[in-house]
Specification:
The complex is a heterodimer of chains A (about 120) and B (about 120). Chain A is about 0% helix and about 55% strand. Chain A is mainly β. In chain A, the strands form two sheets. In chain A, strands 2, 4, 5, 9, 10 and 11 form a six-stranded mixed β-sheet that branches.
Chain lengths: ~120, ~120
């Protein structure tokens, strides 16, 4: 049962244009969502997050949008740069008792982003 | 400061052998996680440690998999009687125990396990 899905295995974008990476989830109990970026032979690195009570979070060139009714989130990168070429994973988590982080993240399959100069 | 480190970076073993994978988390991080990524798949949660105890082992795929953490620091993931389907990249992550906040996890570079 894939609770977090990234249906596009790859995305190719021209430098300077917008990259839009999509993610769908099935579990309405998730409390927060994160995007991670992964280069070959390295571990994933945290990029940006959003709480389930928000619909948008922005950090520089990166903006994450959350549509709870559609159980869909997206990551927008504007403008895209060749250095953004990597695998992008969306992940979701839940809070446990007392509001503490539950710890376990559920990841999507990843989307390979290629930004062409 | 130093990030999460894992050893070995690559491990090739024969089917049926036991393997141990090591993770050194970021100093001061009380939470530690093991994930694995099989070819073409996303990261699959295996086990979570808070200190030396494991509140969530739900992702361990079989009783051939076990993990321990000592001194609230180093963790070892052991796979007994390895099978070819165990071939994957095994990733370790650590995080501060966040209160009322999301849980940013810092990942190591992973151990690529190949079972022949």
């Amino acid at each position: 049962d894939q609770q977090v899905k990234q249906n596009s295995p790859s995305l190719s974008v021209q430098e300077g244009r917008i990259s839009i990476l999509n993610c769908d989830y099935t579990n309405s109990m998730f409390d927060y969502f994160l995007w991670y970026k992964k280069y070959p032979a390295e571990g994933p690195t945290f990029l940006i997050s959003i709480s389930s009570i928000k619909d948008k979070n922005e950090d520089g060139r990166f903006t994450v949008f959350l549509n709870k009714s559609a159980k869909h989130l997206s990551l927008h990168i504007v403008p895209s740069q060749p250095g953004d070429s990597a695998v992008y994973f969306c992940a979701a988590g839940r809070f446990g008792a007392g509001g503490t982080s539950y710890g376990k993240l559920t990841f999507g399959q990843g989307t390979i982003l290629t930004v062409h100069p | 400061g130093a990030g999460v480190s894992q050893s070995p970076s690559n491990k090739v073993t024969e089917k049926g052998k036991d393997v141990e994978l090591r993770c050194d988390p970021i100093s001061g991080h009380t939470a530690l996680y093991w994930y694995r990524q099989s070819l073409g798949q996303g990261l699959e949660f295996l086990i979570y440690f808070q200190g030396n105890s494991a509140p969530d082992k739900s992702g361990l795929p079989s009783d051939r998999f076990s993990a321990e953490r000592t001194g609230g620091s180093v963790s070892t993931l052991t796979i007994q009687r390895t099978q070819q389907e165990d071939s994957a990249v095994y990733l370790c992550a650590s995080s501060l125990q966040a209160l009322a906040d999301y849980n940013e996890q810092f990942f190591g570079p992973g151990t690529r396990l190949t079972v022949l």
